[in-house]
Each structure stands twice: as structure tokens, then as C-alpha cells.
């Protein structure tokens, strides 16, 4: 997901994402790739959403997998999110600031 506000588009998805993350004290790291994996560590367990759909209002038929699995969650963290966190743009919800990672 790119910051659509900086691209001159009016969707506001990026701004909405940051507001929701701030409200819930979630961390956000964005990198330029096409995969869509969302990890949620909750009081009820660790969940993963793995989908082909973009996070927008696209009416296309898409696939998704919704799992409650600590093993899949940890695999995504180790082999996917660690790389993104090193190379992506991290938004600190507490400081409300963006930090571009350099490796």
C-alpha cells in the first residue's frame, strides 16, 4: 500500500490505515511488493489473512485464506515481515512519525 494522499488520489486508504493503527496501537510497515498478508496477534490467538485482493473497493473476485495458526503466523513473521521491516517504511503509531528503513 502506498501513501495515496501523496500520489494525488482521493481514496484516503493510507490515511485511514494509519488512523486505525494509531487507535489500536498497532505497528505498520509498508514495502513495495504485491503480496497481501496480514498478521494479527490477539488475546484469542494468532491469526493470518492471506489474500490476492488489494485493500480497496475493487469488485473483482479474489481469494483469501483466514487462519488461526501460531505456526503460520510465526512463519510469516520470520520469513516475510522481518525482511519488510528491514527494507520498508515504518510508521510509529506512538510518535506518529515515519521512518524509512535503510539496510
In summary, what is this structure?
The chain has helices at about 15-25, 70-85; strands spanning about 30, 35-40, 45-50, 65-70, 90, 95-100. It is of the alpha+beta class and about 100 residues long. It has a 3-stranded antiparallel β-sheet, covered by helices on one side.
Strand fraction: 25-35%
How many strands, which pairing sense, and closed or not: the largest β-sheet?
3 strands, antiparallel
Helix segment tally: 2
* Low-confidence runs of at least 5 consecutive residues: none
What is the molecular shape? globular
Mean pLDDT: 77
Topology as H/E string? HEEEEHEE
Task: Give the distance, in angstroms, between the N- and C-terminal Cα atoms.
Answer: 20 Å
Strand order of the largest sheet: 1-5-6
Structural class: alpha+beta
Number of DSSP strand runs: 6
Over the alpha carbons, how many angstroms does the gyration radius reach? 14 Å
Instruction: State the helical fraction.
Output: 25-40%
Topology:
Elements: H1 13-24, E1 28-30, E2 36-42, E3 45-51, E4 64-68, H2 70-87, E5 89-92, E6 97-100
Antiparallel strand pairs: 1-5, 2-3, 3-4, 5-6
Amino acid at each position: 500500500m502506498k501513501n495515496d494522499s501523496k500520489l494525488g488520489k482521493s481514496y484516503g486508504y493510507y490515511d485511514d490505515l494509519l488512523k486505525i493503527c494509531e487507535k489500536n496501537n498497532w505497528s505498520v510497515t509498508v514495502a513495495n511488493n504485491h503480496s497481501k498478508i496480514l498478521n494479527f496477534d490477539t488475546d484469542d490467538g494468532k491469526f493470518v489473512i492471506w489474500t490476492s485482493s488489494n485493500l480497496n473497493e475493487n469488485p473483482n473476485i479474489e481469494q483469501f485464506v483466514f487462519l488461526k495458526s501460531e505456526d503460520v503466523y510465526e512463519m510469516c513473521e520470520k520469513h516475510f515481515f522481518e525482511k519488510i521491516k528491514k527494507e520498508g517504511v515504518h510508521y510509529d503509531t506512538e510518535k506518529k512519525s515515519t521512518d524509512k528503513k535503510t539496510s
